[in-house]
Amino acid sequence: MRHCLYCQHNSPTDLRDCPQCGMPLPDATMNAQLRQRQRRFFWFCVGLALFCLVMMLWLPRTILG
Ligand SMILES: [Zn+2]
What are the transmembrane regions (predicted)? Predict the structure, then answer.
């Protein structure tokens, strides 16, 4: 079952659009895209953390205090 975000109508999973209001239902490809974006954001954060760590080690101690 899929839950329509617009009219809260429950639809069979094989339908792309809501039979009641005609709006597109959330599907697997959208979820995959969202997961990919979340993973990319995660690696961006990891890269940023590594960059900060390298900068902390690389900069002279006098500047950091
Ligand atoms: Zn609907």
Answer: 41-59
What's the pLDDT tens digit per position in 2-61? 788 889 988 887 888 888 999 888 766 677 888 899 999 999 999 999 999 998 888 877
For the chain, the domain total comes to 1
Q: Is residue 20 a contact partner of residue 2, using CB atoms and an 8 Å limit?
A: no
Please give the residue range of the domain that contains residue 19: 2-64
Is pTM beyond 0.90? Reply is no
Q: How far is the CA of 8 from the centre of ligand 1 (A)?
A: 6
CA of 3 to the centre of ligand 1 (A): 8
CA distance 46 to 29: 26
